[in-house]
Amino acid sequence: MKHPDPKTDEASIFLEVSWDNGAASLPLHSSITLFLLSYTECTSFHVYLVSDHPESLQALSNMVPKSLDVSEVKRGEVPALVGACRLPAVLDAGGGFCRAGLAVVLRHIIQRTCQVQPGRTDVASLLGFKNTCLKACAEVSQWTRLCELGIPSAVEEHLRSPTEKHLQLPAAIFHLEQRLGEPVRVHNDDKIRRQKLQQQRNKSSPQSEDPNPGKREKTFPSEPEPQGPGAEALSAEPYGGVELSAALAKLSVDAAPLSSARERSDIRKVKTTELPALEHVFAEGLYFTLTDVVLLPCINQYLSSLQQHAPHALTFLPLLLRWYKRVQELPGVCRAAEDCGIALFSPEVSGSCSHQPKSPQTCEAEQEKSRASQEHFVGGPRPTLTKLQENGIEAIFSPHPCPSWTLHWESLPAAVNPTEGKMSDTRAMRKRQQLNNLIAMVTELAHPGHTIVDFCSGGGHVGIVLAHTLPECQVILIENKEESLVRAKDRSSQLGLKNIGFIQANLDYFTGAFQIGVALHACGVATDMVLDRCVQARAGFVISPCCYGFIQNTLKFSFPRSKKFAETLTYKEHMILCRFADQTAVQLPPERRLIGKRCMGLVDLDRGWAAETHGYSVRVMTMEPESCSPKNNMLVGVPADNDKIQL
Question: Do 350 and 315 touch, CB atoms closer than 8 A?
């Protein structure tokens, strides 16, 4: 894809700049990104501040680390892939691979730093256990959504009205305070909890006799003496113990590790359910991770505002204050904060206040727990199917317009063939049949110059075939799993495709214009997210849904989707349809598969009717041959007001 300046021969990070009343400022997402760059001492990227106002860099000079190579760029001059995404975003050298969204960008900075400096174990540890910290996308993870979106948005909303007369703690802040008070669950926590129990018993009765004097074993010290940078400050905590020792062992190679000696026999006999819980040292538990890096700039601004405008409210955030104090004492944090113009401070908590801040509305986690409690049900689909039938609602399948259409796979380059994805011959054959169906529909809709987006692209089976088959169209692959998208990029490079781009991001971070959206086996609510994005863009769509049993109400979507279904079925009844729509596997009895297919058709009919209320013409059809997949439905829709996209 063609990209204007700035240069694309080096990896670049693009950060948003805000202007209000003639003053420049950095949104929290931009501040967090700069803070991580400074903390990790990463200089592998050229940083572009995106703003249409001149002299943004000069106005923000005290907020940008001096070690970074920084330039300004106007919004209309950013590369095409970056312009199609919400910032922050990273563009790889060459300009064909973009990563967008706070968590994705931050994780890439850490990974890049570790590639350049393999010895930076302190940076690598930010990704947490098995490198999963903030890896789950915000669309499915409450915790990622809270840290990546909820808390930054809540703090920025508060800062717009910091002197509100009736102070109300934001729900996201309230949720974080609650989270810090929950017991910690970490890998191998059974061992650490037994150490904590032994420590507690040693402290409560230091002179107690060994219950097995004839079998004396080496015991743990009550608390390893912390060493290394930052250890002295942390060891002064009002509570310490094994939690703090475990945290210190991660923070510094000089810190004393937890003893590996075997615990006493009486400790070994204690049931796991009776062991003491572990307390939070940092946001995710015992260890300092990327989550703490994300939260610090946000919480710093929030606490600073409370200190100035409502200091009494600080008394209601004791755990957050303790976390804030502890993070400041870590090596590198104060240096990075100073580099980024983040003024850390020691909050002064006033005495008890006469009134408590208004309780926030039910937080998102509680809402989702409430929704989840509604999902447990028993019973078969027949009463629901009968109810729909009595109201004149039946699954409607349109005839396939070109059931025998196929690509000439034998004449295509090897990298186009799905066998390049290292799958079995049988599965590769079925995948080719699935692709035949989607490509046939897309080629009916596409015209030269169109942009086609392959949502939830995985390894690029659909997008790569489209880019090769339709060279006059631009194709963008969007996927939140980096490993899959990198494989797709490698296959594209083998083919020398010039009309293809790659975006690693959650669907909500893609904001670009396009004419056709396609998705093969978009899982659960992902189908509805793709449909919604296509409707917003007034784009045609060709979507094959999957994993109907994972469909459930979310913050953004409620089911049933269409008015007629909602007037006929309750949420619980619709979930029964979704559950049985997944029962189409070939090993099931034929009668059950027929019921599953009928349920699939009804769920997709509901989706189609919902799209039709936005001016779309939608058809639900079956892939040919039906045996190509147990999930063989296709939703094909075109906006009625777009004469350039017609079937």
Answer: yes
- Exposure of 114 in the CB half-sphere (CA atoms within 13 A): 14
Domain 397-573+586-639 homologous superfamily, CATH: Vaccinia Virus protein VP39 (3.40.50.150)
Pick the range with the lowest mean pLDDT from 24-28, 262-266, 520-524: 262-266
Average pLDDT for the chain: 84
478-536 confidence digits (pLDDT tens): 999 999 999 999 999 999 999 999 999 999 899 999 999 999 999 999 999 999 999 99
- Contact between 297 and 342 under an 8 Å Cβ cutoff? The reply is yes
- 484: nearest Cα among 456, 454, 452: 456
- Domain boundaries of the chain, sorted by first residue: 12-127, 142-160+171-182+287-368, 189-205+218-274, 397-573+586-639
Residue-wise pLDDT for 170-203, tens only, equals 999 999 999 999 988 776 666 666 676 677 677 7
* Cα 72 off chain centre by: 28
Distance CA 295, CA 320 (A): 11
DSSP characters over 29-72: HHHHHHHHHHHHT--SSEEEEE-SSTTHHHHTGGGS-TTSEEEE
Task: Name which CATH class applies to 12-127.
Answer: alpha beta
Q: Strand 633-639 and strand 540-546: pairing?
A: antiparallel
At position 586, the amino acid (one-letter code) is V
Cα–Cα distance, 26 to 372 (Å, whole number) = 37
